[in-house]
Amino acid sequence: MIQSKKAIGFFFSLAFLAFLSFYFSARGLLPFTDFALIEWQMKLAGQTIFYLPYLHQIQDPSFSFFPLPDLFFQLTNGKAHSTFPNFYPFLFSPLLKFFGTVSITVAQLILFFGAIYIFHQIKKDVVSTVLLLFGSSLPIYIFLIHETILIFFLEILVLFLFSRNRVTIAGILSALMIWIRPEMSMVMVLVPFCFSNHSRILRFGISILFVLSIFVLGNLYTTGSFFPLRMAKNSDFQFRLETIFYLTKIWIGQVPIFLLSCFFFLRSSVSKQISFPLILLLLVTVVTISLAPNTGGHNTPRYLYGFVPLYILILRKDSEMIPVLSYRWMFALTLISLYTIWNLNGQMKELKKISKFQANTLNEIRKLDDSMLLFNNSDFSFVALPLLQENKDLLLLRKDYDQQDLAELLQKENIKSFTFLELPPSPFTLPENLIIPNCPHKCSFRKTKTLSLPNTLLPITQTQYLRK
């Protein structure tokens, strides 16, 4: 047997050393995909701007060439609003504005360990605390500009408040999380089953529904949408086996607490001491995976992280606080901790590769003479989002774009030349001559030469068009 205080000291020291190493590895990481969008929202929030500005709003009121894919913005009263709520960007924008991205990492590190500490106060169970610390790949988001760590902190706060019979406040925070991350609704439904006293379910549910109704009315008034923008933009459900398979694979590979729960479930089934809350949690997990609109795009099961604390609470529901830890649990926790650190290290290496590609690509695009850049791939335009702060102008071609509308937009903005950046295989291209309608002089943009964009890890091509 090992004293619990010594055990928890060992595992927190291990976490501190591992995360310190990851912190130095993550320095200089550049945001990509929706990370870049959230960083842009933070910078705008620092200027008290809570929409996505578009320089060509007058010439292109339908935002046909806006540099983000349609999934990530919603037009409301002639302005583009991100489908990511401004709650996280607003809270963290002062840190980014005055102290840079390092301060965001430090703040998220504090939130993460604060959540672990609050969780420990629920039962003061060493096993549960260490499992939350190392039971999933969630800590990778400490080093990224994303709302995942904030949502994790709020979820742990809800669980703590519920355990202390502060269910009204817990319900208010739950409604806020559901509005920011709709998939958290599946998690909040199961919160009462993590505790023995079910008498508080009704008050908890009423407080959630009441606050959600306020959010819905406010959203209807401001955007005309009943659902949160993130949910409204993903309303077209399609059953995709490849998405289910991929999410299942990374959920099993990156969340060892899930496999541990499955082991205990099988063992309890053999001994005929079945945990019905655990069965319900497993079923809801399967349903969430099946309903996921996409994979999340981060190579992590981020739609499912909310279930991690629930698995731990249900798994340790009947355990009592003891001053010692068995060697069997010490071995299991050490194995899980080392596996998670190894997994996080692999993810950090992958992030550094992506960041290197991002840095090289941005540096080469900065060297282009043209300020007007036209993209044919939304993933590629995400890479270039930081250039909006550097006097570069970005436009994105869509599948059904109108060549005449594009030519008129360029003419009205008095563009003399632009560079078309392609990432093969090209879904759609520009013609050799882009004709400007109703034009008295220099009535087309003509393709000149096509070159590869050097020093990038992808076969990106650059083609300059001159007005002649």
TrEMBL record:
Its protein name is Glycosyltransferase RgtA/B/C/D-like domain-containing protein
Q: Which NCBIfam families match?
A: LA3751_2_3_fam
Sorted keywords for this record are: Membrane, Transmembrane, Transmembrane helix
The record lists the organism as: Leptospira vanthielii
List where the protein spans the membrane: 7-26, 98-119, 150-180, 201-224, 244-266, 278-296, 326-344
